[in-house]
Write a structure and sequence with these properties.
The protein is mostly loops. The protein has one helix spanning 32-40, and strands at residues 4-6, 14-16. It starts with a strand and ends in a 37-residue tail after the last helix.
Length: 77
């Protein structure tokens, strides 16, 4: 958890690994501006407006699979 991963196919995509107890609900809170600057701060000190949020899991390179649920996604100003 917390690892920043640069996409191997494009430098325009970054992932931040999240994690918590398996088979239990886990709460995450993030300051998106801080996350953006961590991921792209060497390229831009200006934080753009948020236009989308993506929640993803990726197992195709390892041939693995996963199942996850998202509940009560909230945007707090």
């Amino acid at each position: 958890p917390g690892t920043l991963v640069v996409n191997p196919y494009t430098a325009r995509v970054r992932s931040i690994v999240l994690g918590g107890p398996l088979q239990r609900w886990h709460e995450e809170r993030h300051d998106l501006a801080v996350d953006f600057l961590r991921a792209f701060g060497e390229e831009s000190r200006t934080v753009p407006a948020v236009t989308a949020i993506v929640i993803a899991a990726d197992g195709d390179n390892t041939g693995s699979s996963t199942l996850g649920y998202v509940d009560a996604l909230r945007w707090l100003p």
